[in-house]
Specification:
- The structure holds 2 protein chains of 2 kinds.
- Chain A is an alpha+beta fold.
- Chain A is 14% helix and 33% strand.
- Chain A has helices at residues 4-17, 76-79, and strands spanning 37-47, 54-60, 66-72, 94-101, 108-116.
- In chain A, strands 1-2-3-5-4 form a 5-stranded mixed β-barrel.
- In chain A, strand 1 (37-47) and strand 2 (54-60) form a beta hairpin.
- The radius of gyration of chain A is 16 Å and the shape is globular.
- Chain A starts with a helix and ends in a 10-residue tail after the last strand.
- Chain B is of the alpha+beta class.
- Chain B has a single domain (2-265), classed as Lipocalin, CATH 2.40.128.20.
- Chain B contains 2 helices and 11 strands.
- Chain B has helices at 2-23, 100-112; strands at residues 57-61, 139-143, 147-152, 157-162, 181-187, 190-196, 203-205, 208-209, 216-225, 228-236, 245-253.
- Chain B has a 9-stranded mixed barrel with strand order 1-2-3-4-5-6-9-10-11. Chain B has a two-stranded antiparallel ribbon with strand order 7-8.
- Chain B is globular.
- The N and C termini of chain B lie far apart (42 Å).
- The chains are: A alpha+beta, B alpha+beta.
- Chains A and B meet through helix 1, helix 2 and strand 5 of A and helix 1, helix 2 and strand 11 of B.
Chain lengths: 126, 279
């Protein structure tokens, strides 16, 4: 019954390493984690909230029109331990983000990294 | 066995990540940095006045989320990401009996197709026993002679182990709860905990509820190093499994961290009524 090839890796991720915690709250199936896109724009709002932090970013599309992207991250208890602060990002800040975009083309994604206007990467563990 | 499981499977996961990255065709994400676990002292003093091991403090899953950086979304460098809720694909699990066997297979197939499975945790319910022992972010242990409290930062769920209670309530007085009713005793330096009375709708893994509330959980907690605590969990459920299911969780003492508040209902904006994500 049990698919070893399917189960082994996923189970290893979840049961022993704890890496699978990205899905501890809800699935990240909406995001295409095989793709990464870069967006530069102005922060509309940063929600420092459980169970997920959200960055609303206004970026200009190829036709010169502004678009608001909704970018999801983990929770403050994780980000805070990675060097983020509740005011690391503020409305009006110009930032560049790396994102796993949504699969359905909605303007949103999972936030992979964020760099401020001075070129400083926020958070991380090096 | 516990440590070897954790070590072996973690190594396998890391190798798999590397293999997956190499195989990705369209711009694979950067390879995640290797997990470096810095070992240190355990709780101090090592023993309580009653002579029992002192485990009071904050413990995180060894090599877990707070020790393996995966970017602000937790998916950086994971090929394919953690794309679906993982139902119950655990190679340590024994074979199931009908109808759970068929339910399990159906859910695995749906998950393999990329379908998302429902999750009560996504609706902010407590994970319950035994899944809460995954702990995700970390676990705070508080010990008194008569009560040992284990709090999961994930979902702010707490269970209490009654050390001065020798038997569970009679079945007709036992209230089904997420954490169940846990009584404990020491066998040398091993804490043995017996749990019954877990709610029928608590799932072992995402989405799979056994639905009868008859699972018996026996745990054996022991330190394998000053800063390592292992929980060997045995699930006994003759209605569901052909034999007991033994699972192991390993925790790392992190005195530099403290448990934090986590209120899932604060801004739970992108899940539907079934606990599936929506965007």
């Amino acid at each position: 019954m049990r698919s070893k090839s399917f189960g082994w890796i996923l189970a290893a991720l979840l049961t022993c390493s704890g890496i699978g915690i990205a899905s501890a709250h809800h699935s990240f199936a909406a995001f295409d984690t095989t793709r990464q896109i870069t967006l530069t724009g102005v922060v509309k709002e940063f929600q420092w909230t459980n169970p997920h932090c959200w960055l609303y970013l206004t970026a200009t599309n190829s036709e010169g029109q502004p678009e608001v992207w909704q970018l999801e991250a983990l929770s403050p208890n994780v980000l805070g331990r990675l060097g983020w602060k509740k005011n690391s990002v503020k409305a009006g800040d110009k930032v560049t983000v790396l994102v796993n975009p949504t699969r359905d083309g909605t303007h949103g994604g999972a936030l992979i990294s964020l760099t401020d206007a001075s070129g400083n990467k926020i958070g991380g563990r090096n | 066995m516990a440590a070897s499981c954790s070590t072996r499977m973690f190594a396998a996961a890391i190798l798999a990540l590397g293999a997956g990255l190499a195989a990705a065709a369209d711009g694979p994400p950067a390879r995640p940095p290797p997990v470096v676990v810095k070992h240190g002292p355990g709780p101090s003093p090592a023993r309580l006045p009653n002579g029992k091991p002192n485990w009071t403090g904050f413990w995180v899953p060894l090599g877990g989320l707070l020790e393996a950086y995966r970017g602000p979304s937790g998916v950086e460098g994971v090929p394919g990401g953690i794309a679906v809720n993982i139902p119950h694909v655990d190679p340590t699990a024994p074979e199931m009996k009908s109808p759970y066997k068929e339910q399990s297979a159906s859910m695995m197939q749906a998950s393999a197709r990329g379908e998302e499975l429902s999750s009560k945790e996504a609706l902010c319910f407590p994970p319950g026993m035994p899944k809460m022992m995954v702990m995700v972010y970390g676990m705070e242990v508080l010990q008194t002679p008569n009560i040992i409290a284990l709090s999961s930062e994930w979902q702010s769920a707490t269970r209490r182990i009654w050390m001065d209670v020798k038997a569970h309530p009679p079945e007709d007085e036992l209230e089904d709860t997420y954490a169940g009713h846990s009584i404990g005793h020491w066998e040398g330096d091993t804490l043995v905990v017996d749990t019954v009375g877990v709610r029928p709708d608590v799932s072992y893994f995402y989405g799979l509820s056994l639905g009868h509330g008859k699972t018996h959980v026996i745990e054996r907690f022991r330190q394998t190093a000053a800063d390592i605590l292992v929980d060997e969990v045995t699930l006994i459920d003759d209605d569901v499994f052909v034999k007991p299911w033994v699972k192991t969780y390993t925790y790392h003492y992190r005195p530099d961290l403290h448990i934090q508040e986590y209120v899932c209902l604060d801004n739970n904006r992108n899940v539907d009524e079934q606990g599936k994500s929506k965007f």
